[in-house]
Amino acid sequence: MPLHMTKIAFGAQSREEVREWFASGPSEMRLTTRYLPKRHEEMVGGSLYWIYDRTLIGRSPILGFEQRDDGRWWIRLERKLVPVEPRPKRAHQGWRYLAEEDAPRDLDAGEDPDKLMPARMVKDLSKLGLV
C-alpha cells in the first residue's frame, strides 16, 4: 500500500484554478521542497492530495523525487488531477503524510464534486451525529 501526502494548493483562488494547473504543459509537474521525505520510497506510486479551502479536493499521482542542483528536491507528479470525495483537512505548512486508509475515495466519472455536500457541512453534521 503506497503512502500519500497532502499539500495546500497555495496561491489558488478557486477550485477551478487548481484544475487549470493541470490542463496543459509537459506530462510531468515538479514541486519544490526543501527536504526529501524520510518515507519517500513508500510514496512512489502514491498521490499528492491537494487542499483547497480546508478541503481535500483532488490528487496527483507521485512519480518520484529528484534532487536539484541547489540541494532542494523536486516532487515529480503526473500532470493529472483526479477529483476525490471532498473531505475536511486542516491547513498546514509544507506537506504531511496521508495513510491509504485515511485517503478519500476517487469520484466516479459521473460525479460532480460541486454537487456533493460541502466537506465542512459533512464535518459539522458528523459532529452532531447526523451523518
Entry keywords:
131 residues, alpha+beta, 7-stranded mixed beta sheet, 7 strands, 36% strand, globular, DUF1489 family protein, UCP032025
Mind explaining what this structure looks like?
The chain has helices at residues 15-21, 40-43, 119-127; strands at residues 4-8, 28-33, 47-52, 55-67, 73-78, 82-88, 95-98. By secondary structure, it is an alpha+beta fold. It has one domain. Strands 1, 2, 3, 4, 5, 6 and 7 form a 7-stranded mixed beta sheet that branches. Strand 4 and strand 5 form a beta hairpin. The longest helix is centred in the C-terminal third of the chain and has 9 residues, at 119-127. The model has no long low-confidence stretch (mean pLDDT 89).
Task: Give a brief description.
With 131 residues, the protein is α+β, with helices and mostly antiparallel strands. It contains 3 helices and 7 strands; from the N terminus they run E-H-E-H-E-E-E-E-E-H.
Question: Helices and strands, in N-to-C order?
Answer: EHEHEEEEEH
* Low-confidence regions: none
Major sheet summary line: 7 strands, mixed
Say how many strands there are.
Answer: 7
The count of domains is 1
Radius of gyration: 15 Å
Topology:
Elements: E1 4-8, H1 15-21, E2 28-33, H2 40-43, E3 47-52, E4 55-67, E5 73-78, E6 82-88, E7 95-98, H3 119-127
